[in-house]
Design the sequence.
């Protein structure tokens, strides 16, 4: 673990525990992703495109680099009483040295936990890590970018509220369940001028 689990307040008097995800969480992660995909809001895949079981899910994440422990990836989970793993945030840095300073953000919240502030708690903690982390050679994350469906107003508002800006549009990128084509937005956040945060 690169930091201790942290309790974060949520709306309505609830709270969550934010902690680093490990390979042992694969079954819970798969359940979370299935619940998000079944809700059919803001996603770009179908349930039959998910791995069949926890072992396949863990292997897929290994191949994607999401389980790396060298600072090239960070995966955080939020546990909420009564829901279990209620959300996940990932930051995956690009591998080529010339773009190693860029991290791609992913964020998902269980439908039963949406509206409580789980996404914000995860996002703020992930960005805090990105600002504070330094590689052995002094390298760091200087840019975070994400991709979000143009019809996902709640997510877009969250990203804007922490400083992400709309930088481009991939026209008709997603084919929705009803056959309509939906734009996908590219949003970015520069950390280049941020003062380094104290590690926790």
Sequence:
């Amino acid at each position: 673990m690169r930091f201790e689990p942290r309790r974060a307040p949520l709306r309505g008097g609830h709270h969550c525990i934010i902690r680093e995800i490990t390979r042992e969480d694969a079954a819970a992660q798969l359940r979370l992703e299935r619940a998000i995909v079944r809700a059919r809001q803001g996603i770009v895949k179908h349930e039959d495109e998910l791995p069949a079981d926890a072992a396949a899910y863990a292997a897929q994440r290994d191949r994607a680099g999401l389980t790396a422990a060298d600072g090239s990836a960070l995966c955080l989970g939020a546990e909420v009483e009564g829901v279990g793993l209620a959300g996940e945030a990932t930051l995956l840095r690009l591998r080529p040295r010339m773009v190693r300073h860029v991290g791609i953000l992913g964020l998902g919240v269980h439908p039963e936990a949406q509206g409580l502030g789980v996404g914000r708690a995860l996002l703020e903690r992930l960005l805090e890590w990105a600002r504070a982390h330094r590689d052995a050679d002094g390298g760091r994350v200087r840019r975070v970018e994400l991709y979000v469906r143009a019809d996902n107003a709640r997510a877009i508002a969250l990203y804007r509220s922490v400083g992400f800006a709309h930088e481009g549009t991939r026209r008709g990128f997603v084919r929705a369940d009803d056959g309509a084509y939906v734009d996908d937005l590219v949003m970015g956040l520069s950390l280049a001028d941020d003062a380094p945060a104290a590690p926790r």
Q: What stands out?
A: The helical segments are 26-39, 54-64, 118-132, 153-161. The two ends are 12 Å apart (CA to CA). The longest strand covers residues 165-175.
